[in-house]
Amino acid sequence: MQSLFKVQRCPLEWLACYARPATLMLFWALAAGCRLAGMEGPASRSLVLSRQLSQQGMAALERGQDEQANELLGQAVRACPSNADAHRAYAEARWSLGFRDEALAEMETARRLAPDNAAILARTAEMRLALGQAETAAQYAQRAVSLEPKLAAAWTARARVMRAIGNTSQALADYHRAQGLAPDDQTIPCEVAALYLELGQPQRALLAVQGLADRFSPGDEPQEVLYYQGLSYLAMQRFEDAAESLAAATVRERPTAEILYRLAEAQRAAGRPSEALAAAEQALAIDPNYQPARALIAETRLAQSTDATTLRR
């Protein structure tokens, strides 16, 4: 389900690791072409400009202004090509715009410039995994964990790789390690819930997100949490509870076709076919090619027609 939510595109976990003064200052001092302030003015001005543009670009990226971020971060890279953080941020902008091969190339440049930066390694692993390069992704994730075992993003990256290659027990262990290091991260419990659902363990999936949901006041729960609550209830055949959670998910943020389809499933199973049809039609309005919703509509209408024929007899 990793494509459903904006946050899955990249929660920018590396922003928490952006300021590593000692490591970065040493690197910049040694990097050709971009020296520290006080060391040959023109070069130091390049670095300062690059960092300023990077900060502006990352702020734009967080606001969802991907085109502006792309322009600013491209300028940051050109201002100081040896600024690893600028390449890392530019990679995120290119990724957001769908230029995945270019994004990976930028992230690899950042990795070569800062080979011991665990955050960069972890994110590079995730990008390679998304591009189907699981073996290389595993190597990078393992190195990130080895370099910085207290970095939650490193354990999360390795968990995602382990999940993708089918090593679910290791994936769960890594997710739990990440959660211990970053208890406020909202993404990890949802991914744990998704994994438990894949394993056919909806009760554990529900537990994984219930603790997170309890941190919020009623009505303030994040959409993704409500979605996985709903899926867990659906798998447990608690259809009314599933419909309630999924209906709430549709109003937290703009719903995806998948969320609306799952709501339709729950409503149909709860004996509310008219509501199920309405939800499925909304899903098709968002994505006309979403075949599960189209199939649900056809099946529901056929069942209604059959019931009506039976009643007439």
Q: Mean of residue pLDDT?
A: 87
Tell me the distance between the termini: 45 Å
Tally of contiguous helical segments: 17
Outline, from the CA principal axes?
A: elongated
Largest sheet: none
Strand content range? under 5%
Number of strands: 0
Return Rg in Å: 23 Å
Q: What this model shows, in words?
A:
- The chain contains 17 helices and no strands.
- It has 313 residues and is mainly alpha-helical.
- The longest helix is centred in the first third of the chain and has 22 residues, at 41-62.
- The protein is elongated.
State the gist of this model.
The protein has 313 residues and is mostly helical. It is built from 17 helices and no strands.
Tell me the layout of helices and strands.
Blueprint (H helix, E strand, L loop, with lengths): L5 H4 L11 H10 L10 H22 L3 H14 L4 H13 L3 H14 L4 H13 L3 H14 L4 H13 L3 H14 L5 H12 L3 H12 L9 H13 L3 H14 L4 H13 L3 H14 L4 H22 L1
Features:
single chain, 313 residues, mainly alpha, 74% helix, 0% strand, elongated, disordered N terminus
